[in-house]
Amino acid sequence: EVLRLVIKGVREWLAANPDADVISVSQNDVNNPCLCDSCKAVYMEEGGAYSGTLIRFVNAVAENIAEDYPKVLVDTLAYQYTRSAPTQTKPTDNVSVTFAPIEGCISHEHADNCAQRNTASYLDGSSNTIIEDLTAWAELCEHLYVYDYTSAVHHTGMTFPNFDSVKRNIELYAKLGVEGLRLEGFAQSKSAEFGELRSYLFSKLLWEPNMSEEAYYACMDDFLVGVYGPGGSYIRKYIDLAEALTKDIHFDLSPNPDELYPVTTITKHSTAELPDDLTVSMVKNYASTDWTKYWNWYKDAEENDITKEGQKLFEQAMELTENESQRKQLDKIYSQVEYILSYYYKERIDDGNESFSELITAFIQAHSDEFTSEEKNTLPSIIKNRALAQVYAGYAKYNRALAEK
Fold first, then answer.
1. How open is the CA angle 315-321-325, to the nearest 5 degrees?
2. Please, are residues 114 and 105 in contact by the beta-carbon 8 Å criterion?
3. Model pTM?
4. How many helices (H) and strands (E) does the chain have?
5. How far is C-alpha 218 from the chain's CA centre?
6. Which of 184, 239, 183, 226 is nearest to 206 (CA)?
7. How does pLDDT run across 120-152, given as a tens digit for each residue?
8. In sequence order, which residues have a C-beta less than 8 Å from that of residue 280 and are 6 or more positions away?
9. How far apart are CA 142 and CA 231, in angstroms?
10. What's the burial of 8, exposed, middle or buried (CB within 10 Å: 0-12/13-18/19+)?
C-alpha cells in the first residue's frame, strides 16, 4: 500500500513538473530503521545492511516510471542507518544514490579513517568506515552522488578549519566516479565566516577535482588578495593558523568553539588573597558598585591563539586595505574572530560564577566585625546576583553589536 501511494505521488509530481530529471524518494531525517521480522529478514539477506529494504522499494518505484519517464532518475539517500550498501540488490540504472557521510570527521579526509564509524550501519551492530561504505556504493551504483558537509551547522559564524580536507575529499570522490556533489553551506544568511571564499574554491575544485595542492592554495591566495586587498596574505596566515591549531582534533559538523579552540583556565589568585581596592563600603553599597572587574578574581579564562593572533593578523590586513570595499569585506569576516571571542566571554561568565562567590564570602569573613549577622547571610547571594546581571549585560551588549554588524 505504501509503495502504491508513493508511486502515485511520484507520478503526480513528475506530471506537474515536466522538466524535472531527478525526483527524490528517500527516508526521513531520523536514524530509526524498521525492526519488524520481515524487514530484519531482508537486512540479513543483504549482508545486514539496513539499506536493503530502501533500495528494493526505490527500485520498484523506478521500474514503474521508467517507460513513461525514461530521462528521470529516482534519487535516494545512503544516510545514517542506510549508509552501508546492500550486498545482493543493485540499484536499477534509473536510480541514483546520494551518499551523505554526516558522521564523518570533517577535520580529516575520509581516507584517513579517523573517528568515522557509524555503529548503526549493520543489523548486527558492526560498522564500516566511510571510505569502505563509499567504495561499496561506487562499485554497486550506476549513478552515485555525494551530499557533503562543509560548514559548522550550530556555530556558522565560527572559523571552520576544513579547507584542506574538503579538497582531498573532492579528489577522492572524482577518483571513485561520483557524478554529482552537493556541498552544504549557508546561503540562507550573510556569511560571517569564509562563505564567499568557500564558494569560489569549491567551484574551482568541482571543475578540476584533481588540481594540485599548490594550484588550490594559489587560487585561495588570489581570492584573498583580490577581495581583501594586499593584506589578504595575512588572512591566509589566519586560515593556516586555524588549520594548524586543529590538525590533531577530530570534529564533526557541529563542534562548539571551545572544542576547536579551547579556552585555557588558569588560577590567578589564591583564596587567601583579596583585591586591594575592594572596600567594606563597596560591599554594603553593592547596588552602586561595578562588580564586573572582580568576576574572575580567582580564575581567569585565557584566549586561544586563534583570537590572540587572529586579532593581530586582521589588524595588519586592515592597515593595507586600499578602498572602502576591501575594508567592509574584511570587517565582515573579522566577525568570526569576534564570534569566538563572544563564546569565550560566555566561558568567562560561567567560569567566574563560583570564584566570585568565594571572593565575596572570603571578603566578608575577613571583615567580619564590620558586618551584621543578617548581612553575612544575605549579602553574598545578593551581590552575586547583582554581579551576574552586570556581566550578562556586557555580554548581551557585545552580541547585540555583533549581530547588528
1. 115
2. yes
3. 0.88
4. 13, 7
5. 26
6. 183
7. 678 888 888 999 999 999 999 999 999 999 988
8. 367, 370, 371
9. 47
10. exposed
**What phi and psi, each to the nearest 5 degrees, are found at residue 97?**
-115, 130
Range 76-86 average pLDDT: 95
Short-list 84, 159, 94, CA closest to 128: 84
Identify the pLDDT of residue 269: 65
More confident: 116 or 52: 52
Amino acid in the structure at residue 337: V
User: Given its phi and psi angles, is residue 295 left (phi above 0), alpha (psi -120 to 50 degrees) or beta?
Assistant: alpha
Q: From residue 45, how far is each of 39, 86, 295 by CA, in Å?
A: 10, 9, 63
176: which residues sit within 8 A by CB, 6+ positions away?
Answer: 134, 135, 138, 144
Once rounded to an integer, what is the mean pLDDT over residues 238-243? 97
Helices 232-245 and 305-319: angle between axes, nearest 10 degrees:
170
Q: Which residue has the higher pLDDT, 186 or 277?
A: 277
Q: What is the mean pLDDT of the chain?
A: 92
pLDDT band per the 50, 70, 90 thresholds, residue 263 = confident
206: which residues sit within 8 A by CB, 6+ positions away? 170, 181
Q: Are 256 and 156 in contact (CB under 8 A)?
A: no
pLDDT given for residue 301 in this prediction: 61
List Cα–Cα distances, 33 to 1, 54, 62, 159, 393, in angstroms. 19, 10, 22, 35, 47
Q: Is 67 helix (H, G, I), strand (E, B) or coil?
A: coil
CA terminus-to-terminus distance, the chain: 53
Nearest to 356, CA basis, from 329, 391, 327: 391
Cell match 575592594: residue?
A: 278
User: Could you identify the residue written with the cell 548486527?
Assistant: 124
